[in-house]
Amino acid sequence: MKSSKPFVLEKSKMKTNQLFEHEMSVVSTAEKVSAEIGAAIKYDDFNLILAEYKKLLKTTSRLVRHSDRMETNLNISAKEAREKSEQLEALSNQLAKYLSPQVYDSIFSGTREVALTSSRKKLTIFFSDIVEFTKLSENIESEELTGLLNCYLTEMSHVALKHGATIDKYIGDAIVIFFGDPKTKGIKEDALSCVKMAIEMKSKMFELRNHWKTFGLEEPLQSRMGIHTGFCTVGNFGSENRMDYTVIGSGVNLASRLESASEPDKILMSYDTYNYVKDTIPCVENKPIVAKGFSEPIRTFSVIDELENKKIISITIGDNRLDASMENLTKDQLEKLKLELSSALESIEIHTK
Predict the structure, then answer these.
(1) More confident residue, 338 or 42
(2) Is the pLDDT of residue 260 over 70?
(3) Is the per-residue pLDDT at 155 higher than 90?
């Protein structure tokens, strides 16, 4: 009987086939038995089974080697994917600095489509700038001005994001912010958040008074702030290749006019905003202003700060609140107010007896 060809694996394949050492041993023993007694006894069935076993072992060995190659390729692909992911994360982190966090999150989460779309919503718009910034820029070097401006914008932005604001843009020293899109807490809460943000910004400006001296300023920086709540068009504007997420409309223009009319270190708001915050934020009505682009005078209100409290008459009854600035009242008006308050006090004493 012709002996079978010894079953030998290549050395380069031995490592891959270590899993089959037992099977290889069985085949080797079977071949040895066949060679020793095959001449005396016919073992056709035995040799057939042995041949099939050898084929099966070779096939399994090839599958394992293929699996090893696949695992290697997968490891390489996984490494490349991690590297690409890290690059994408680094790129997205840089891109995030050019977008408001709410806009960035809505785009990358897939909830907002990057297309030329817009909608009309009631938003609260905020404008602020630095008093006499143009004059300031003429008196200090550009490097110092850049550092000062970046410091100012950074501090104000931290406060804005803390209150959930959508930072629209920086225009030199001016900051444009709005509340109500892409996320909203409700119109009233958005207005309240905006005014609270403005109050904290004003407080932050006072905290930084000593810091401004490091930029060579003789006088500390002062800011003006304007706030209005009204319907605006918000969304993506521009072209298919370059678009800007912003707000437009008369409400935006009015907020800008209020900021221009505000006194230094003051927060000036329209009646529309005041109506939403009057039960929470102490405010006083100022003289109406004539704003460019608006046919009727605009009623304005300003937030009362601690230094002004002694000059303000404030009466709160239930959900109703009355604030009046004694500085804005004439002598006759003060006398009339005194008489009316005395009369009201007498009526209260009669009804409480």
Answers:
(1) 338
(2) yes
(3) yes
Q: What is the structure's pLDDT at 76? A: 85
Pairing mode, if any, of strands 223-238 and 266-270? parallel
> Residue 323: phi, psi to the nearest 5?
-125, 135
DSSP reduced 3-state for 242: coil
DSSP-based three-state secondary structure for 171? strand
Q: How far apart are CA 153 and CA 305, in angstroms?
A: 23
229 touches 123 (CB < 8 A): yes
Compute the Cα dihedral for 181, 95, 158, 136 and give only its sign.
negative
Determine the Cα angle at 36 with ends 33 and 41, to 5°: 90
Q: Which pLDDT score is estimated for 185?
A: 93
For 165, the token pair is 């604001």
Distance between CA 325 and CA 91 in Å, rounded?
53
Which 3 state secondary structure label does DSSP give 136? helix
Percent of the chain with pLDDT over 70: 75
Return the higher-pLDDT residue of 252 and 35.
252
As a whole number, mean pLDDT of residues 290-310 equals 80
Structure tokens at 122: 């009631």
The Cα 64–Cα 61 span in angstroms is 5
Mean pLDDT of 166-183: 92
CA dist., res. 126 & res. 258, Å (int): 9
Torsion sign (Cα): 125, 130, 131, 134: negative
Which residue has 């008459």 as its token pair?
A: 313
Q: What is the pLDDT of residues 9-51, one digit of tens each?
A: 454 455 555 656 766 776 777 677 666 665 555 556 667 667 7
Cβ atoms of residues 268 and 259 within 8 Å: yes
Q: Residue 294 is encoded by which pair of tokens?
A: 């608006």
CA atoms within 13 A on the CB side of 44: 0
Q: Give the C-alpha separation, 123 to 166, whole Å.
A: 11
Q: Compute the Cα dihedral for 207, 306, 326, 290 and give only its sign.
A: positive
Residue 167, strand partner residues: 177
Cβ contact 180:124 at 8 Å: yes
Select from 232, 294, 305 the least CA-distant residue to 257: 294
Please give the residue that has the higher pLDDT: either 275 or 350.
275
